[in-house]
Structure formats: C-alpha cells, structure tokens
Model the fold of this input.
Amino acid sequence: MPQGADEPVRWEDARAVNLANWESRVPLHLEAYGLDRLRADPDALSSVVAADLEALSRFLPDGVRGLDLCHLQCHIGTDTVSLARAGARVTGVDFSPSALEAAQALASELGIRGVWVECDVLDARAAVTGDFDVVYTSIGTITWLHDLDRWAAQVAALLRPGGLFYIRDGHPALYGLDEDAEGLVTRYRYFADGRAQRWVETSTYVGGGTVASPDTLEYPHPLSEVVNAVIGAGLTVLRLDEGDTLPWRFSNAMVEVADGEWAFPEPMRDRIPTTFTLIARR
Ligand SMILES: C[S@@+](CC[C@H](N)C(=O)[O-])C[C@H]1O[C@@H](n2cnc3c(N)ncnc32)[C@H](O)[C@@H]1O
Done:
C-alpha cells in the first residue's frame, strides 16, 4: 500500500494505532529531544517554546509568568517544562502513559512542578481539573485528531473568559506535498473527508532507532477547518500567521537554516507556507 493511502477507519481504531506508535517513539525521543540542554542550563527553553512565546508576546506582553497554562499533547514534556521555566503553572495533557511518565520524571529532575493528565485530548475538559488563562498546543498536534469541532470545544471549555488559545503547527498545504520530490509537487489530499491516511515509518522525525509500532493514521485538516472549528467553539480569532520554516525536516529538499529549523531553498521558500500560528481569545 502506498504511503498516505486514504483509509476509512473508526476513530477508536485509528486512536489505538496512533497510541501504540507514540508509545514506541518515547524511548527514541528521550535520546534525541535535547533533554541534556535543558538539564545543563536552568534557563534553557526548547526552541519551539522560545518561538511560541515570541509570537504570544503581542497579546501577553508580560509573558506567561504567573498564568495557569494547559499544554495539550505535551509529549515528553520538553515544551511543558520550558513553559514552566517561563513562569507558567503548567498542566500537561497527553494520551501516552510513557510520554507522561517521561514528562513527570523530567519535571521532577529539573525541580519543576506540574500536573500531568493522561487522557484523549478530545476528552480533556472532563479529565482536567480547573480552568486556564492559556491553552497551548504546538507542532505535531491536530493531524492525530479526527474531529476538530470536538477538539476546539475542549479548548474553549478549558479556558477562563478572556483566556488565550495558542496553536502553531505544520501547515496543511505543506502536508499535501510529496516529501520525496525535489520540487513542490502535490501528492496527498488537502481537504478533509473523514478518512485517515495510513503511514508506515520505522524511523521518527528526530534521532535514530527503530519505531516498534510504525503505523500511523493521520487526518488532513484544511486551514479553513481549523479556523472555523475555533470560531465555532465561540472563540474570537485575534491573529493568524503563516511561516516559511519548520522545526523538523519535512522533506529532503529542505535545508537547515538555523539549529533544528528547516526551510525549502529559494526560490521554493516563497511559494508554500510551512507552518500556521493561530491565537484566539475566549
Ligand atoms: C508531536 S508530539 C507533541 C508535540 C510537541 N511539540 C513535542 O514534540 O513534544 C504529539 C503528541 O500528541 C499525542 N497525542 C496524539 N493523539 C492524541 C490524542 N488523541 N489525545 C492526546 N494526546 C495525543 C502523542 O502521544 C504525542 O505525545
């Protein structure tokens, strides 16, 4: 079967396949996610969070210091502890027990307090205690979810009135491209139709090693669907930006433009967005 083949699949089945995949990536990511940098320097932040705090500063001039922040799909916690170092009181949410165990261990090793909640992000409101000034999710999130209306409803319900929602992720137009092509060639579906796309990849996006459960089932979501889900949940969109670099190497055509940051070479760079950033207020 070709990579990215469309597959009609029940959400529960897709979710189980993806959970097995994420569980098997945790040991590899613990080696490759740059934890030693966070250990070595008590002021170090992940590069993802450093960029996200910059993007948020327009609406949070004093940063996240003293704010209650819920991090959805927190993975092994490198971004969550970075947000805590920036002064937030953090709650990390993920459906992977191994990822949360790693996040909790990293936080206690770094002397950071956090609350860790194991649940499907689509059930986050019921699983998480309290409400938040900021709900944050970044880089590698919504392709794992089949229902963005339900996702956005969780976000809205987790936020206090006036609270901010922040997401930065890979641009859906990028995900339509052939990752093996030299140039910008479309290969995959851009629009959502309820079906997932099956991928089988024994390597992961950072570091080496073999992923024991290599199958994933991911859902394309056009940008309009993301924006309309957020609006539909009652949030006010404050800002929508598109970027031309990416914190992972999407295709071999990309070149490293800064430490861990990738982009297409010119003249391709101006022709396709690689990320979107959306900020909304409840
Ligand atoms: C790319 S990672 C998180 C992004 C973060 N930028 C990072 O790299 O640390 C994606 C995370 O989403 C989690 N995830 C995937 N589907 C989920 C779901 N339905 N509910 C909760 N977590 C989910 C995975 O376990 C994984 O930790």
